[in-house]
Amino acid sequence: MTNTLKEKLVTARVIDQGESIISYIKCSMDVFIYRQVLRPGVLVLTNEKLVFIADSIPGNELTQKFEKDKITSIKIEKGLLNKKIVIRYENDVYKFKNILSENIEAFVNLVKDN
Length: 114
Fold this sequence. Notes:
globular; single chain; about 20% helix; about 110 residues
């Protein structure tokens, strides 16, 4: 699936041809569009950046890029039923919920290490 995902990301001009995908997780990003909503998608770690790409139809795309040197913190918060990833990026806070990966800690550690 990684090759297919990489081809989609290169085609969408989200990552460059020379970038390599280190890891990814399926999740939802908490965004404000007239109200708080969750946008499902994929959070992808490359050798150069972290990118969230929402599952969407043409005209309703959502892509958020996080340059590694501007991420001030990344952590896992535990809720009543599940965990979420919280990223502080410059002066903003981004939350990723509904994570469909069993090894969230490994993904967060990869982001911290890279």
